[in-house]
Amino acid sequence: MAYLELNNIYKTYGEGDGSTEVLSNINLTMDEGEFVAIVGFTGSGKTTLVNLINGLLQPTSGEVLFKGKPVTDTSHERGVIFQNYSLLPWLTVGQNIYMAVKEAFPKESKKALMEIVKNYVGMVNLTPAINKRPKELSGGMRQRVAVARALAMNPEMIIMDEPLGALDALTRGNLQDEILNIWSQDKRTALLITNDVDEGIYMADRIIPLKPGPNATLGPEFKINIDRPRDKTAMNDNPEYKKTRNSIIEYLMDIGDERKTVSEVEYKLPELTPKSFVA
Amino acid sequence: MEQEMVLKKESNMVSNFKQTILKLTPSMKKDGVFKSLKNTGITLLSILLFLGLWQMGSKALYNKEANYRVEKALQERGEEAAAAERACIESGDSSCQPNTLPSPSQVWASLQSLIADHQVISADKAAFAEKMAVTNEKMISQGKDTIVYTGRASFVDIVLTSIKTVFAGFLLAMFIAVPIGIIIGLSPSLRSAFNWFIQIFKPVSPVVWYLLVFMIVKTLYIGDSSDNAFVISFISVGLCAMWATLVNTAMGVASVDKDYINVAKVLKLGTFQKVFKVILPSSLPLIFTGLRITLSVAWMVLIAIELLAQSQGLGLFVWEEFQNGANDSNSKIIVAMFVIGIIGFLLDRLMLAVQNMVSFNKNEMA
């Protein structure tokens, strides 16, 4: 039995004539401990897909199965790292994480919870900033808080919605390593949504492109056969890396071109002559 | 770099509050001394300019009325009467002074006389209390009502009554508007159910609110000889002023950032937790903006309502002085005007300080 299963997912927004089908016929299976990356253009429905998996949205038709059971609501078993950090600005770093662990472990004592918070804050190297508010932190630091918050709840599966999209290249690289570290420590299952092919290849076991929406659907999967731990600099010379990267980019370019030709609808303007307003 | 985590962060809030209060006075940082001197200078200059214009304006109005009187005396009663009228006006005798916009110095003199009057009355009050102390003790031991001072209220008493009325009205507005605002903000169906109610009653004038409250309170107090003017006026003030808070609270609660709601869902917060840990904190800035508007509206409608309710506050003071028509009535009205303005300004500053204290997003504050 697959760990996570998406069967014939369709998602439509709106009703009647004004409705748009964002996702159509999405099928995906993930095994436990796997790291899967979904790569797609912006606006292709990636966030909708993520929200279907974490339980914030329900599919119009089809079903999402998590460990064999349909997903009807959010769950502490699936931790989410949102695209825009989504930290509560009136709480400090510590308070933001504390709120999460308190919900995840309602039976633990306050002292034990504080200990968990401190551990995870230390893990993302933010101990000096534990009493700061999100406003006082840089983008990278905020994203690290969001990572710590998701992981502190000790979820079985981590769902990441373009977690590093807004960061500069250097911070991005560091955080990729941090996430990989944490993931490999106890082999959780991870789903990464990204628009960066290199990030996907560096981090994931499999890459699946999402064809751009409306009617977005998943393309053929690309297996990444590069041994872990992967080295960024050495990877650039790896023929396997080059081959995979080229084929994925080629595929994305192709569907990008396809989209362009599809959207070239000709609009015929009515034959009108301007009215004369001079009496 | 071991640092203890703090779950409740108070110190930051207090310092924010202090900072806002300090902003009332020009900043006195070392590098800003010159700038603050310059700003103070500009402020002083504008005050002087204002006083000058006022002085000129009142002088012009005074002359116009004086000339008219002399002219009228000349036409109606002849040259002799006109000369007498002119002499009378020039002598400064109070019986024939033109009754027009008072000059700054007259207003200043009125302020002095109001303060002196207050001192006289409070001395009188103290003497009365001393004289009645023994009698009152006896009355209390016998279980009877004590004898209280029923003399004229001084200007300071009047101002205090007004402030008391505004605060009572403000608290009433807060206790009605904030909970209702939260409830209708949370539920779209309740929001549409209440919407007509809010839209209809929001623009109703203070006078009409007063009449409505009067109808109800009068009956509730029937057979009771105690003074209900204060009750009527603070309830009317509260009802007039609460709409800004009601609308802002509902809007703030209804428009919480969707990301925060998603966080609450992913963390699986319960309804109570969601409301108190996520929705309320994120709508606090808007709620306080509403409360700030409410306080300023309360202070504005207070005058009209006190006037109608015959409550011993600034509104009644202004009206009585106008009806009185004594020589210094006009300048007393202007004194009241400045007192109203200054207190209104201070109340607004106070609310701004509180608002900044609770706000997590200082950049969005005006």
How are the SSEs placed, and which strands pair?
The complex is a heterodimer of chains A (279) and B (366).
Chain A: E1 4-13, E2 20-30, E3 35-40, H1 46-54, E4 61-66, E5 69-70, E6 78-81, H2 93-104, H3 110-123, H4 139-152, E7 157-161, H5 169-185, E8 189-194, H6 197-203, E9 206-210, E10 222-223, H7 232-235, H8 239-262
Parallel strand pairs in A: 3-8, 3-9, 6-7, 7-8
Antiparallel strand pairs in A: 1-2, 1-4, 4-5, 9-10
Helix pairs in contact in A: 2-3, 2-4, 3-4
Chain B: H1 11-22, H2 33-77, H3 79-91, H4 104-141, H5 155-186, H6 188-201, H7 206-220, H8 229-254, H9 258-266, H10 271-309, H11 314-324, H12 329-358
Report what the structure shows.
The complex is a heterodimer of chains A (279) and B (366). Chain A is an alpha/beta fold. In chain A, 36% of the residues lie in helices and 20% in strands. Chain A has helices at residues 46-54, 93-104, 110-123, 139-152, 169-185, 197-203, 232-235, 239-262, and strands spanning 4-13, 20-30, 35-40, 61-66, 69-70, 78-81, 157-161, 189-194, 206-210, 222-223. Chain A has a domain at 4-77 and 155-262: Rossmann fold (3-Layer(aba) Sandwich), CATH 3.40.50. In chain A, the strands form two sheets. Chain A has a six-stranded mixed β-sheet with strand order 6-7-8-3-9-10, with helices on both faces. A four-stranded antiparallel β-sheet of chain A has the order 2-1-4-5, covered by helices on one side. In chain A, helix 3 crosses helix 4 (139-152). Chain A contains eight helices and ten strands. The longest helix of chain A is centred in the last third of the chain and has 24 residues, at 239-262. Chain B has twelve helices and no strands. Chain B is mainly α. Chain B is 78% helix and 0% strand. The relative contact order of chain B is 0.10. The longest helix of chain B is centred in the first third of the chain and has 45 residues, at 33-77. In chain B, helix 7 packs across helix 10 (271-309). The chains are: A alpha/beta (279), B mainly alpha (366). The interface between A and B is medium-sized, with 34 and 24 residues.
